[in-house]
Q: What sequence folds into this?
C-alpha cells in the first residue's frame, strides 16, 4: 500500500470520527492527529529506501540539531 | 463539569481511534529490531525539533510566559541528550545483532534508554495539561497529538 493510499484513508475517516464522537468542535484535534500521522507516514516513506546505517547517521545529525534548537529556545529572553 | 468530562471523553475517543488507525496503517510489522530502533530514533529527533518550534512560537506570541518556556526548553534539552545517547547506543551495539535481532541483554539496555527519551515527553504533555484553561488550547492539542505519536512510535519499537 502506498503512502498516498494511507493518507487518503486517514482523511476519509475525519467525518466518521466526528460522527462517532458526536462533537464537531473536535475537528482541530483530529486534524492535528492526522497531520502527525501524515508526518509519520512521510518519515516512514523517506526512510524506506535507506539502509539502517544511513537512518542512524541522519538521526544522529537530527538529534544534534534538536539539541541546539532546544538550547537556543532556553536562551531566548 | 459534565460537559467538560464529556468533551474529554470524546477527545480521548478520537485520539484512541486515530492512534489505532495509524498503528494499523503504519506499524508494518518487522522483526528487524535494528531498523525499528533506528526509525524510532529518527522520528523522535524530528518530533523533538517540532515541539521546540511549537514552544518557541507560543512564547513569541505571548501565549506562555518565560518560566513555562524555560521549563519546556529544559525538558527538551534533556530529551535531545537522552535521544542522542539512544542513537549512539544503537550504533555501538548493532554489530552484536544477529539477523537484525539484538541479544536480550542489549535490548534491555536500549529499551531502558528509550524510556528515558519518551518519559520526559509524556511528562511535558502532562505538565502542559496542568496549565489548565488559562493555557493555550492549540498548544495543548499539539501536545496531545504528539503524545499519541510518541505512543505509536513506542509501540512500533517495543
A:
Amino acid at each position: 500500500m502506498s503512502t498516498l493510499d494511507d493518507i487518503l484513508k486517514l482523511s476519509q475517516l475525519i467525518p466518521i470520527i466526528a460522527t462517532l464522537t458526536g462533537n464537531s468542535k473536535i475537528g482541530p484535534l483530529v486534524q492535528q492527529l492526522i497531520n502527525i500521522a501524515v508526518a509519520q507516514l512521510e518519515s516512514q516513506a523517506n526512510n524506506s529506501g535507506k539502509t539502517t546505517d544511513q537512518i542512524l547517521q541522519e538521526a544522529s545529525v537530527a538529534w544534534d540539531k534538536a539539541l541546539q534548537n532546544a538550547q537556543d529556545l532556553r536562551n531566548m529572553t | 463539569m459534565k460537559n467538560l468530562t464529556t468533551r474529554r471523553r470524546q477527545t480521548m475517543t478520537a485520539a484512541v481511534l486515530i492512534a489505532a488507525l495509524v498503528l494499523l496503517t503504519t506499524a508494518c510489522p518487522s522483526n528487524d529490531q535494528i531498523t525499528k530502533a533506528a526509525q524510532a530514533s529518527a522520528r523522535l529527533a524530528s518530533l523533538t525539533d517540532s515541539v521546540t518550534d511549537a514552544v518557541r512560537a507560543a512564547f513569541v506570541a505571548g501565549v506562555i510566559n518565560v518560566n513555562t518556556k524555560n521549563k519546556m526548553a529544559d525538558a527538551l534539552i534533556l530529551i535531545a541528550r537522552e535521544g542522542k545517547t539512544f542513537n549512539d547506543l544503537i550504533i555501538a551495539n548493532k554489530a552484536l545483532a544477529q539477523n537484525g535481532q539484538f541479544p536480550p541483554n542489549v535490548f534491555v539496555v536500549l529499551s531502558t534508554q528509550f524510556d528515558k527519551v519518551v518519559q520526559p515527553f509524556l511528562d511535558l504533555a502532562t505538565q502542559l495539561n496542568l496549565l489548565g484553561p488559562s493555557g493555550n488550547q492549540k498548544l495543548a492539542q499539539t501536545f496531545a497529538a504528539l503524545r499519541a505519536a510518541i505512543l505509536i512510535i513506542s509501540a512500533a519499537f517495543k
Observations:
- The mean pLDDT of chain A is 71.
- Residues 14 and 20 of chain A are 10 Å apart (CA to CA).
- Chain A touches chain B through 46 residues (CB under 8 Å).
